[in-house]
Amino acid sequence: MWGFYFWKEAELGSLSWWLDELGHAIGGFFFTIVLLYLIRTYFAGGFFRIGGKKTLRFLVISVMVTLAFIWEVLEFLWDQWGHPSFPWIAKAQEGQVDTMVDWMITVGFSFMAMFVDWFYERRSRRLHPDVYEDEEIKEVCDSIHNLSESILKEQRSLRKKKIRETFRPLKTRIDRFYSEHCDEKDLEHRG
């Protein structure tokens, strides 16, 4: 996170190690805030309206746990395959304790960001109840609109299917009549 200048091999508890932990803490906190913003702004459709805020928070924490895990796997892979080729660059991990502390700090600060978000939203609801009521009304109206659109789409599909089923026997009779009668008359008329 801090670039090659600050990337040093550090003993557990040293100043360089704490700098690495600060990077994990900042990453966990701010990636959670950014993820909350992105989901609320761009993906807060029907699924989160059905599941609610608990579903949103569970998803964000799950993504952060997964990202922290992937980051630690990448550090492990660097130490196994990258570091032998570039020995002048520091190792990323100092062992199992470092890995677990990195992971716990990232996830812990992610939970802290969720708490800050919850506290901020709770405080904002008290200070600006009219804004939240307007947003909730708009969300309900959007949900009703989406539901009515899906019902109309399903109704149109069923109507088309019923029309096809109704006219299929009629079309079969007309085709049979045409093939039995009209072809013979055409032949007599031409001949």
What key attributes describe this structure?
about 190 residues; mainly alpha; 2 domains; elongated
Note down, in words, how this protein is organized.
This protein has 191 residues and is an all-alpha fold. It has 2 domains: 15-127, no CATH class; 130-191. Helix content is 85%, strand content 0%. It has helices spanning 15-42, 46-85, 96-127, 129-190. The termini are far apart. 10% of the residues are buried. The model has no long low-confidence stretch (mean pLDDT 77).
Question: How are the SSEs ordered, and which strands pair?
Answer:
Elements: H1 15-42, H2 46-85, H3 96-127, H4 129-190
Helix pairs in contact: 1-2, 1-3, 2-3, 3-4
What is the H-and-E element order? HHHH
Tell me the β content: under 5%
Q: What's the rounded overall pLDDT mean?
A: 77
Low-confidence stretches: none
Entry summary:
The protein has four helices and no strands. The protein is mainly alpha-helical and 191 residues long.
